[in-house]
Amino acid sequence: MDRNERINEYLKIFGFKSLTEVQEKVLESALNRRNLVVQSVTGTGKTHSYLFPIFLSIDKNIHDLQVVISSPTRELARQIYEMAKPLAAFEGIDVKLYVGGDDIEKSKKRLEKNGNPQIAIGTPGRLKMLSVDLSLLNIFKANTFIIDEADMTMDQGFIPLIDQMLVTLKDETNIMVFSATIPESIEPFLKKYLENPTFIEINKKDLTPLNITHYFIKTKYRDKVSIIKDIMSAINPYLSIIYCNTKDTVIDLYNSLKNDKRVTYLYGDMEPTKRRKTMKDIRDLKYTYIISTDLTSRGLDISGVSHIINYELPKDEEFYVHRTGRTGRMFNEGLSISLYDLDDDSYLDKLESKGLKTEYVEIKDNKIVPSKIRNARSRMDFYKSKINQEAEKQLRHKRTISKKVKPNYKKNFNKKVQEEKKIIIKQKLKNQHKSK
In angstroms, how far is CA 54 from the centroid of its own chain? Predict the structure, then answer.
């Protein structure tokens, strides 16, 4: 069976019709053993883009470690492992998973008794322990080392662990780095280990490469929980993720919705056993709504997500892409619904300036209908300008500062004035809205 025939078989295994853009671009470079830095947004097929060339090029006659794949979380590592298993079965390749939380003694005994697998997938801490600390996993023999979700790996402080493994590699080892973003902070690491790498960037400038409709609902000073309940009554998702910015907000919102047995929750530092059970229940379709932090927005494959709801907008518009990229995957349609308020106007301007096609809606009679609130933007800008001037007049008399002041008094004073100004503006706009 030639290479093209094997690729077609791989596509059939996963039910794909053709290679995605990132898969096509990575395939040739990886097979030619180039060092790669691949930046591609969520939902474009990054994982398969490196799994396909790995299985095409692995030497089945060498029963020792040839490929190492490092992923920053247990869930992501398990997900990669589950994706690799069908290919391993098809090609007759030995693949093993090594993650924190699993029984280390079992892993040690298996390596001592059976030797190394041909492909090792795991978290940085467990891979480093088995290879550097215990000298059981032969990472120094690997021909390929893949760092998946590199920016998340850096954020979680795992780069020193990766560093200790990479220094043991052969000079000719091929290194591939995959990430949704390439922050400046990771560039020294890339320069240290990747000589003349090939850079592949997919959809960097396109904020909405996927087939997703983006709805925005203005809260208009209403209780956000009640709006979420209205949304839940107006949609019929296969699976929906409700995003919050913090663990505390996730818990608070879950407590408000927990009487609905369709609802569960996920956040980063959940107890591992509880998180694994929740993930299993989600994949078994026991829940329709998952309240979550950004844990689920990066790499974690929860299939069948039809709706994304942003209870809170993420602080960075790029993370809006990661969140909404959980739906509309692999050519399917998706719907994103985000709550916003007056303070989010500039945020929405940024999204729209980057090409996001926004639709402003509201819930009426359990239906999503168009809203005119955001469309009256020029009138709102006029009101804001006038009210801003009035607020300045009201606060001007407070700006006389005594010559004898405490340290940082001026800084703190100006901060307080700005906060009061925001309150005045918000109240004026609210009154203006009521008068209409």
Answer: 24
What would the two tokens of residue 349 be? 């301007």
Q: Phi first, then psi: what are they for 146, rounded to 5°?
A: -115, 130
Q: Which residues of 296-315 are buried (b: 16+ CB within 10 A; e: fewer)?
A: bbbbbbbeebbbbbbbbbbe
Nearest by Cα to 133 from 155, 111, 151: 111
pTM over 0.85: no
| CB of 38 closer than 8 Å to CB of 22 | yes
CB 174 within 8 A of CB 35: yes
d(CA 189, CA 150): 10
Burial 276-290 (b: 16+ CB within 10 A, else e): eebbeebeeeebbbb
**Which residues are bridge partners to 200 per DSSP?**
38
**Which strand ranges, in their side-by-side order, compose the sheet holding 334-340?**
263-266, 289-292, 240-243, 307-310, 334-340, 212-218, 358-364, 367-370
Supply angle C-alpha 266, 311, 178, rounded to 5. Answer: 60
Q: Which helix (H) or strand (E) holds 199?
A: strand 198-202
- Is residue 107 within 8 A of residue 74, CB to CB? The reply is no
41-50, 130-139, 363-372, 406-415 — most confident range: 130-139
| Calpha distance 242→327 (Å, rounded) | 12
Torsion of CA 218, 223, 224, 227, to 10 degrees: -70
pLDDT band for position 381 (cuts 50, 70, 90): very low
The contacts of residue 410 (CB under 8 Å, 6+ apart) are 401
First-residue to last-residue Cα distance in the chain: 72
**According to the model, what pLDDT value does residue 400 have?**
46
Residues whose CB is less than 8 angstroms from the CB of residue 323 and which lie 6 or more positions away in sequence, other chains included? 241, 243, 294, 297, 308, 310, 314, 336
321: its two tokens: 């892409």
Residue 180 CA to residue 38 CA, distance in Å, equals: 8
Closest CA to 116 of 139, 99, 134: 139
pLDDT tens for 395-421 read: 555 544 444 445 555 556 566 666 666
Q: Alpha-carbon torsion 320, 246, 276, 132, what sign?
A: positive
The amino acid that residue 21 corresponds to is: E
